[in-house]
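Supplementary Methods S3. Input chains for the assembly prediction are listed below.
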Amino acid sequence: MMNRRVFLSSALGGLGLGGLGALVEESSKLSIERVVASIPRLKTGLEGLRIAALSDFHLYPFTPLSFLKRAVEAANSLRPDLTVLLGDFVDQTLEAMDELGPLLGTLNAKLGVFAVLGNHDHRKGACRVEERLASEGIKVLSNRSVLLEWGNARLHLAGVDSISGRFDLRSALSGSREDTPTLLLAHEPDVADAALRDGRVSMQLSGHSHGGQIRVPGLGHYGLPLGARKYPFGSYQLEGLFLHTSRGLGTTGAPIRLGSTPEVSEVLLVAKKDLPMPA
Ligand SMILES: [Fe+2]
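Predicted structure tokens for the full assembly:
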């Protein structure tokens, strides 16, 4: 496997200042990724539910607040029914939450705004991140769940803590029931294998990978972190479980991206037709 230094010298060699400028520019672009999530056991009332998902904010030093403000405005412009935040709010300074918290407090969705924490949040101070989010009315689902009611239908929304924190999938799913679809929020996408084994999760939304952050056809990724090597980006229709891995918003290590434009996900729920619908 190519190490990171060899990868970077191969990928960036010959780019020159203009090429490096393009890499920095890509990190400030924003893509609305429209995802149609085909969900087993989805009741009719939940069809068409629209979810905005944002991940990997990494505010400061490489990701500016102004860029995250654009992402928040884009998410609100989708007029989502539900908004979810998939972790890594901070990068190198916990104090960033003093600015990011109020910005995230401007997110709105009919069913509310929910979050899970990421590995960087644990590295800097999970309690403070969680407190700051809670003070803005954002509910942090660390190994717990809530039952959401949407018309006559119900959706179980569960959140599991990062594998760098107090990961406990059993607790996160303890309230799940066979007759209600469960949407799992998990910072690390490869958690999907454990969710598949459990069998109660219909859909999972994750981030963590930054889509590799620097991705070159033929060379691969600059680096995929532990927990995002099997399902690094995009949508996966696994057996009985739909997974979407967001490329996230911010950067870590350097303010550059290549082949991995920052993403706000707009997820639309539809029923998977080849499975029997619940009564
Ligand atoms: Fe991240």
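The chain has eight helices and 14 strands. The chain has one domain: 32-271.
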